Amino acid sequence: MEDRAKSVMQIEKSIFKAATGYEYEESEIKANKKDNTTEVKKVKKHKQPDVRAAIAYLNLFCE
Q1: Which of 16, 17, 39, 49 could form a disulfide with 21 if both were Cys (CB 3.0 to 4.6 A apart)?
Q2: First to last CA, the chain
Q3: Which residues are 37's β-sheet partners?
Q4: Could you say which DSSP state residue 8 is in?
């Protein structure tokens, strides 16, 4: 039963995160053909809130 509770908590966190939006880092790799080098640049991006996730969260976890 503890595994089920952990799973439900993890799902709740994931749905809440999707419903409210979040920031994440993404790596961009640029190759320079002249001198045969590559550059890795980390870029912060923002995931917009998802209305369907908000509705699901409210229906599932708010009573």
Answers
A1: 49
A2: 22
A3: 32
A4: H
